[in-house]
């Protein structure tokens, strides 16, 4: 439930699952995914860039090809990952907000409600200390969920913002995950950001897809 050695530097940072810790920063293929896909596809493609631009208040041309609009650049100090699910937004929203479902793919929440201003915590099994303190910052059903993610007891205390933005796409849902709060001028935080991105991409988001699919 935490990244133990990140790039050879001892770092205790809470993460839903254990990610790779080799400091690898290999680039990932960029693509625009067809809405007939069964499994979630994680990356940033043209549709994701439109959604990313929308969250930043930027207007970009509609996605009309398989290319990527380079006018919307990724934030190197954030984790930004797009996924497509064939289920409608309300099904994805339930997986993001119903405690029993949250526990299956992320962590067990206590006191959670999808309402701005709600204070809650995630419990990390088999870890001491074992709590992440959170506050819901924004909640628009089937559209957006944003909460703070604070781990004060860590060796290097961290405060991140996790945002989930949902948009219908065909009969399914395009989901954009954004995690901010990293200071990439700090070598330790930069490596942590890279490791957490891999963990979301390779382990957590696929588990979310399994919960939504079933």
Give me a quick take on this structure.
This protein has 214 residues and is an alpha+beta fold. The chain has helices at 46-55, 89-97, 99-105, 187-213; strands at residues 2-6, 9-14, 79-85, 108-110, 119-123, 131-140, 144-151, 158-169, 172-180.
Write down the secondary-structure element order: EEHEHHEEEEEEH
Low-confidence stretches: 1-42, 63-71
What best-fitting shape do the alpha-carbon axes yield?
globular
Strands of the widest sheet, in order across it, are 3-9-8-7-6-5-4
Distance from first to last alpha carbon: 24 Å
Fraction of residues in β-strands: 25-35%
Count of distinct strands = 9
Number of helices: 4
Determine the fraction of residues in helical runs and give it as a percent range: 10-25%
Rg for CA atoms: 17 Å
In this structure, how is the largest beta sheet organized? 7 strands, antiparallel
The secondary-structure class comes to alpha+beta
Task: Considering the chains and any ligands shown, give keywords for the structure.
214 residues; seven-stranded antiparallel sheet; 4 helices; 30% strand; disordered N terminus; two-stranded antiparallel sheet
């Amino acid at each position: 439930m935490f990244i133990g050695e990140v790039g050879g530097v001892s770092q205790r940072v809470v993460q839903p699952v254990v990610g790779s810790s080799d400091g690898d920063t290999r680039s990932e293929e960029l693509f625009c995914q067809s809405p007939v896909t069964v499994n979630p596809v994680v990356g940033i493609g043209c549709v994701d860039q439109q959604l990313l631009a929308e969250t930043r208040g930027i207007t970009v041309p509609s996605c009309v090809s398989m290319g990527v609009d380079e006018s919307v650049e990724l934030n190197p100090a954030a984790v930004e990952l797009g996924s497509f699910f064939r289920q409608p937004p309300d099904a994805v929203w339930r997986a993001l907000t119903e405690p029993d479902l949250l526990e299956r793919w992320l962590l067990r929440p206590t006191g959670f409600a999808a309402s701005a201003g709600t204070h809650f915590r995630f419990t990390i099994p088999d870890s001491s200390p074992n709590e992440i303190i959170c506050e819901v910052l924004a909640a628009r059903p089937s559209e957006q969920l944003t909460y703070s993610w604070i781990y004060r007891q860590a060796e290097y205390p961290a405060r991140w913002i996790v945002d989930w933005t949902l948009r219908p796409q065909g009969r399914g849902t395009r989901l954009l995950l954004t995690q901010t709060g990293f200071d990439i001028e700090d070598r330790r935080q930069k490596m942590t950001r890279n490791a957490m991105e891999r963990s979301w991409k390779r382990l957590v988001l696929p588990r979310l897809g399994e919960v939504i699919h079933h």
